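In response to reviewer comment 3 from the previous cycle, which asked for concrete evidence that the modeling workflow produces usable outputs, we include below a single protein chain processed end to end. The sequence was submitted unchanged, and the resulting structure tokens are shown without manual editing.
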Amino acid sequence: NGVHLAHAPNAPPGEAIGFDQFLAVDIRIGTVVSAEPFPEARKLAFKLVIDFGPAIGLRTSSAQITERYTLEELAGRKVAAVVNFPPRQIGKFLSEVLTLGFADADGAVILFSPDHPVPNGARLF
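The workflow returned the following structure tokens.
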């Protein structure tokens, strides 16, 4: 996965944005329903199906999280994702949401999830 300079822990903050721009990014919590290998992806990734509750439903995501997670430990896990980006076609797979994580010291992606229970579909603010 390699750490992109903007993702490095010592990278400077991004360019200032307005609060309205932040509010436009819809970040929600969901529960991973299933996870499968994605061998066709250019970079190692898993195919996730995530339940975001009744208002949004099930959405798919290609997630480059293979270095720190196994397929077996992902089902039932809470994850955060941007749900209002346009879908991206990745090979034959349609990735509908961007699953969020942080790069650890080695550049591997660590998923972002709440430390207390929250319902599927809860929005970050």
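Strands lie at 27-37, 46-51, 58-63, 78-82, 88-90, 93-95, 98-99, 101-103, 109-111. We consider this sufficient to address the reviewer's concern, and the full set will be provided in the supplementary archive.
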